[in-house]
Amino acid sequence: MAGSAAASDQSLRGSVEVGRDRNGVKTLQNPKGAIVEVSCYEGQVISWKTECGEELLFTGSKAVDKPPPHAVRGVIPICFPQFGTQETLEKSGFVMDRLWTIDDRDPPPLPESGMTHVDLLLNPCAVEIWPHKFKLHLRVALADDGSLILVSRVRNACSKPFTFTFAYHTYLAVSDIDDVRVEGLDTCDYLDNLKGGMRSTEQGISLSFDSEVDRVYVEAEGVIEVLDHKKGRTLKINREGLPDVDFWNSWVKKSKAIADFGGDDYKRMVSVSGAAIEKPITLKPGEEWMGRLKLTLSLSTKIEESSSKFGCSTPMWLKKINDAVKDYWENTDPMILDTYDELVRTGYVSPIIRSKAGSILPGL
Q1: 61-65 contacts: CB < 8 A, separation 24 or more?
Q2: How many helices and strands in the chain, by DSSP H and E?
Q3: Cα gap 113→110, rounded to integer Å
Q4: How many other C-beta atoms lie within 10 A of the C-beta of residue 52?
């Protein structure tokens, strides 16, 4: 039975694991070519790319490829056993500064099929600043549709209860913060960290940005959507076991004070993080908690319809558009021409191709 279970689990991987580099980075790739990179040092996702190679996660422009123990500012670090300033630990906890290992021992089956994945384990340990033994498992999965899934399990491995908070501190790459809207948080209560944690209720249906924001939306039910109008795309955030949403953009002044940030980096990012913050989680000895985050990218309806017509996934269809223009197709399908204005607006037609083809395809 154990052998058949292992074989069944292997069949769910759906793709190849590309390998591991010298700094312990594990690479996952799905059949369509989307890629996720996971650092075994920080236990964090450090890259999530579409099948066209577009990076969906933000990293500070001044960040460099530092060897351990330097964590990357950006992407998706795990914050445990604290996220916030309620306790005496660092705001983001300490697990991102520790070495994780590949967990090859009979992990639980995937809840969905059609994924390639990797399992990491932070071994039972206790540290001087937080003397509780625990096991922290992390599964990172890349679905066939390009969705990124993170599942964390925390187990109490000591003889006394302990309490913690948790967050997937997710830095999303955007085209321009002026063109970004966040939906799904209307009517939610939030704690405003810029006002000493003052509690308020969100009145807006769609949230936009014109200054620094640092809030924790509590008991935020449903799907959160980050709409990037300039790129014509929406990133959907689904959560399980993570009732709260941390919502942050550093804006001008604070961005200049962050070591890994360039002065204008705040324009290219927004942090929308699934979390458990307001009500800390308590585990008795032997108990386990699980938190799950799923990020899914979708493009505008018009582009999706054209993608469906051409019988390929959206990023590959956009690549075909670029290839078609580059080769100067003269008998272009009217439906392709119909979407050129939107393709130019969203930036999917590269400037080089646009300059070469401008005289042939007006408006490109």
Answers
A1: 61/260, 61/261, 61/262, 61/265, 62/259, 62/260, 62/261, 62/262, 63/260, 65/23
A2: 7, 21
A3: 7
A4: 17
* 3-state SS, residue 67: coil
- Main-chain dihedrals φ then ψ at residue 237, nearest 5 degrees: -120, 115
User: Tens digit of pLDDT for each residue in 158-217?
Assistant: 899 999 999 999 999 999 999 999 999 999 999 999 999 999 999 988 899 999 999 999
φ, ψ of residue 279 in degrees (nearest 5): -110, 95
Q: Could you tell me the sign of the dihedral formed by the alpha carbons of 253, 275, 108, 31, in that order?
A: negative
Q: Is the pTM of this model over 0.85?
A: no
Q: Give the span between the Cα atoms of 255 and 267, in whole angstroms.
A: 10
DSSP state of 66: P
- β-sheet bridge partners, residue 172: 57, 270
Which of 25-29, 53-57, 126-130, 355-359 has the weakest average pLDDT?
Answer: 355-359
Strand partners, 20: 26
